[in-house]
Amino acid sequence: MGLGLVFNMRYNIFMNFIEKNWQKLILLVAYVFILPVVSLAQDINGNPIDTQGRIINPLGNTSSVPELIRKILEGLLKIGIPLVALAVIYCGFLFVFARGNPEKLTKAKDALLYTLIGAAILLGSWAIAQMISSTVLAL
Question: What residue ranges do the domains of the chain occupy?
Fold first, then answer.
C-alpha cells in the first residue's frame, strides 16, 4: 500500500465521521468554549459576581439612548466579527472541497458573497450609528 492510498483512506474515514457527527461536534465545541465563560462570570470591572444575589446591570451606567445603542452595537460587533471570520474560513473550505465542481463552486461563491454582505451590514450599521451619534452630540 502506498502512502497516498493510506492517507486517502484515513481522510475518507475522517470526513465520513465529520459528516455523520457534525452537530455533535459543534455542540462539543460550543460546550467547551461557552461553559468556562458562564461558570467564571465576572462583573464589568473584572471582579467576581456578588454572592449576595444582587443583579448587576451588564451595560454599566447607561443614561442616554445614544449610549445604549453604542453599547449594543459594540456587543454585536464583538460577537459578529469573529463569526464573520469563521464564515470566511468556512467559505474557504467550501472552495477547497469543490474541487472544480461547478455546482459546488457556485455554492461556495454564494456563501462568500453572503458572508461579505453580512460583514458590510454589520460594519455599516456601526459606522452609521457613529455618524448619527456624532451629529446629535454636535447639536
Answer: 1-40, 55-138
